[in-house]
Amino acid sequence: MSIFNPILGLCVAGSIATAAHADVETGIVHLEAGDIANAVTAFQTGFDAGDADGAFYLGRLFELGLGTDVDLQRAAALYRAGADAGSAKAQHRLGLMHLEGATVLQDFGRAAELICDAAETGDPEAQFNCGLLHAQGRGVAADQAQAVTLWTAAAAQHHVAAHNLLGQAYQEGAGITQDNVQAVYHFAKTAAAGNAMGLYEVARAHASGEGLALDPVKAHGFANLAAVRGLGEAQALRDRLSTELNADELAQAHAFARDWKAVPIDQAQ
How large is the C-alpha radius of gyration of the chain? Predict the structure, then answer.
């Protein structure tokens, strides 16, 4: 399959096919280094050699306008090619396009088929979004327990949003037995990585003593960290706690927030 190279301005399938040892992993390295032209070459070569994810990454370049103008129709065509060749990433992305319905026909059933098939391969983004579809009953039967199962699988691969939705599910007893300790376990994972929602929920737990030890100093500190990440509810909690702490406690809370450091979610305790 030939793919027009927007950087070079010509059809390069022949020359790309002869590039020795170029593959999708090489393309990702080039992309991370900002070398779009060589990334395109490597992705195309990888796809020509049978790595279906090559088409996915080429599609993302067109979708995001990296090294070229944004071209959603071309992105969709590349995702179809990748999906037909077995790329779970491309399948998932095409499913999201069908969910939105801006570039391809909106079709919740087709979207769910693509996304949830990709989820079955173990792709964490697809697992997360298939879970959302089950939670919302879009394209599939509403099934909160199945949503929890899928989010659990995605969270096991350190998916931040999946941890947060699991935390909410445990808080509310939606599709799983209500358990504040388990809710906080998941929120604490994303909080440690610097996620605003996780930080806020850990602050709430420390402020209420539900799921964590009552600790207004830490509650203030975590709310402070969430507030500077743009969460209005966290600012309101921080400001309320500021009126309840004495001067020494407030200084401790400020020091806690100042000294706090985020860690990658796969290293969070």
Answer: 23
pLDDT at 22: 52
Q: Can you give the residue ranges of every domain in the chain?
A: 1-85, 87-142, 158-269
Average pLDDT of the residues of the chain: 91
Q: For the chain (length 269 residues), average pLDDT per consecutive 10?
A: 33 34 83 94 92 96 94 97 96 98 97 98 98 98 98 97 98 97 97 98 97 97 98 97 98 98 91
How crowded is residue 168: how many other Cβ atoms within 10 Å of its Cβ?
Answer: 16
CATH of 87-142, one of 1.10.3720.10, 3.40.50.2300, 1.25.40.10, 3.20.20.105: 1.25.40.10
pLDDT digits (tens, 9 = 90+) for 73-130: 999 999 999 999 999 999 999 999 999 999 999 999 999 999 999 999 999 999 999 9
The verdict on domain 158-269 having CATH code 1.10.4080.10 is: no
